[in-house]
Design brief:
It is built from 3 helices and 7 strands, in the order E-E-E-H-H-E-H-E-E-E. With 141 residues, the protein is an alpha+beta fold.
């Protein structure tokens, strides 16, 4: 890869393949040693984020049980803190990867200090719910 270099992030205990792309800079995270193939030591990245409790996630699952559409989510949780979408994938991505277009993504941040709740509805009106841990700004990193 032109313009790529291997870097060590001591704070996170990670090796990256740093690269420049048309969209900007990025990196690929190494999980295995490129020389010998051994599993690299565990990253400290998890320490950057809070861990929502099983109880918190269970509460949201109960609230959203049977909810499949954006309209239903809004009825249960109210207006979101942030909305994105739609996301339209080209036919090639849909065929190769099985991607579905996304009508909308709703993000709820106000319900928890440890996680955000993201809800998406796809082109077939199928809903998915994701629980994202929030960044721990008091982390020692």
């Amino acid at each position: 890869m032109e313009g790529a270099s291997i870097q060590l992030d001591n704070k996170l205990n990670e090796f990256h393949l740093a690269r420049k792309e048309l969209q900007g800079e990025g990196y690929l995270l190494f999980y295995f040693c490129p020389s010998c193939g051994k599993l690299l030591t565990r990253s400290k990245r998890d320490g950057l984020f809070f861990k929502p409790s099983k109880k918190q996630i269970a509460q949201f699952k109960r609230k959203l049980n049977g909810v499949t559409t954006i309209r239903q989510v809004k009825e249960v949780l109210g207006e979101p803190d942030h909305t994105d979408g739609p996301i339209v994938h080209d036919k090639g991505q849909k065929k190769i990867y099985g991607f579905k277009d996304v009508k909308a993504t709703l993000v709820y941040r106000r319900f928890s200090n440890k996680m955000d709740v993201s809800v998406q509805e796809d082109e077939n009106s199928h809903g998915s719910i994701t629980y994202w841990p929030k960044q721990n700004l008091r982390s020692s990193f």
